[in-house]
Specification:
Structural class: mainly alpha
Length: 321
């Protein structure tokens, strides 16, 4: 026979099991800590910055041009990711160079932090009055700032017109299209070009020569990155399997051949081609002062003339303006 004490113990145990359990509360300190933790990419900007000096129509065109620049960069990156360094287009512009650096420079435009890239329209340095200036990087006056002059809004074409109206990659200027022009301007900004993307080639002929003779510099040459992006977008997207590559004009080809001979000889001695930005500074000799008395000294790169005589150093309009 079961004793009364045993039955009583069983009843107490059952009651304890049936009693509701007090909810477990998280540590107030722990919860507060997690609520205050910022996102790992806090402060990053996903859109390019446009200064209040740009009016509504300029802002619309700038945003479209910048979107075109991203489109060009993204497709160029995707082309290289798909074909590596083995495609005909890749070898045309980058020779035997590995593809990692090329992918990286395009990815910077697509997904890089855009907080330190400001585009403005008020021309604080007074350079837009100069003939044929479509804009300029402010250099020492504003390291993260680029001025876009009225000429750009009047003449630059949208990417939808790539290969139209007789344009070819070989014979057309890289600043024909707003997107490719802005691609070049973005690489002047330290947060995108990091002071490493430079101008080692001055035109289409020199771009091809650089890929053939010194491809380690092609991977961070501003003009090469523009030409490749235009060429593969034309071939893959604008007019599939055809594009609009064009041909190097005969006169330019012969001049380029002579220049390549001299260039190859020079490179074999020094091993390092001179950046066009550095060459420009050497030719200018000294800085110029802005017409605005309150402005700071203007960087040399913002005051170079468009061209020089055939007998002197050849400088690129595209690399400056």
């Amino acid at each position: 026979m079961i004793s009364t004490s045993v039955v009583f113990a069983c009843v107490l145990a059952s009651a304890a099991l049936a009693a509701p359990t007090a909810p477990h509360s998280a540590s107030p300190t722990s919860a507060h800590h997690h609520a205050e933790m910022p996102a790992w990419d806090a402060g990053a900007a996903h859109d390019f910055q446009i200064h209040s000096s740009c009016n509504s129509t300029e802002t619309i065109q700038l945003r479209k041009g910048l979107a075109d620049a991203v489109t060009l960069a993204e497709h160029a990156k995707d082309h290289v990711l798909r074909y590596g360094n083995g495609s005909e287009h890749y070898r045309k512009y980058f020779g035997e160079a590995s593809s990692g650096e090329v992918i990286g420079w395009y990815e910077k435009i697509v997904n890089g932090d855009k907080a330190h890239a400001l585009f403005r329209c008020d021309d604080p340095d007074g350079n837009c009055v100069q003939p044929e200036w479509g804009g300029h990087w402010r250099g020492e006056n504003g390291t993260n700032e680029t001025v876009i002059c009225p000429l750009s809004y009047e003449t630059r074409r949208p990417l939808e017109q790539l290969c139209a109206m007789g344009y070819t990659v070989a014979e057309g200027a890289t600043n024909t299209y707003f997107g490719s022009d802005l691609l070049h301007r973005l690489y002047h900004i330290p947060s995108f070009g990091e002071g490493h993307v430079e101008h080692f080639a001055d035109d289409y002929a020199e771009v091809l020569a650089l890929a053939r003779d010194n491809s380690s510099y092609s991977t961070h040459d501003s003009d090469v990155l523009q030409y490749f992006a235009l060429d593969v977008y034309a071939y893959d997207i604008a007019i599939p399997s055809t594009g609009c590559p064009g041909v190097l004009p005969t006169a330019t080809a012969s001049e380029s051949s002579a220049a390549e001979t001299s260039s190859s000889s020079s490179m074999s001695t020094t091993g390092t081609p001179t950046s066009m930005a550095h060459a420009e500074s050497a030719v200018a000799g000294q800085d110029s002062i802005s017409s605005d008395d309150t402005a700071t000294v203007m960087p040399t790169v913002a005051v170079m003339s468009e061209t020089t005589s055939a007998s002197s150093v050849s400088l690129s309009y595209r690399s400056l303006h």
